[in-house]
Request: fold
Amino acid sequence: MPSNNLPPASPLVRFRRYLSGQATHIYLPLLINLLIVLSGYMICRMAFYLENRALLGSIALPDAWGILRGGLRYDLSTFCYTNALYVLLAVIMSQSEVRRDMNRFLKILFATVNGIGWASCLADAAYYPYIGRRVTASVFAEFQNDNLSDIFLTELLHHW
Reply:
């Protein structure tokens, strides 16, 4: 029987071994999807600035990094709220026997929830010049007597 005189594996080596097993098939795609969503929110934030830069004025580079950091914190909270159910179901159902149907459901859930989130961020960019602030729930109370779908379609055609 050969003796094993190898030093103990470092935490990084143990982590790589862990990822090379079953966990890679579950957590790595989940992590990639979540990074894509977070990147999408940052792109929406940049689109907001580009659409409204005449109203916001120019921003110096040091100030821009501070704004992006603050925006990242805000995006992380939005990201956690909108993707909590997706992450929970993905982790729970990864051990399930009904993977094919559940994966289809998770893809639809992921695309729908994050599509709505991105669309609302982009719509906010078009709406900002009219009220001078970001959209909150109070906006819906202001327009309760108006047809929001007509306003939305008109602005969609006007801006994009």
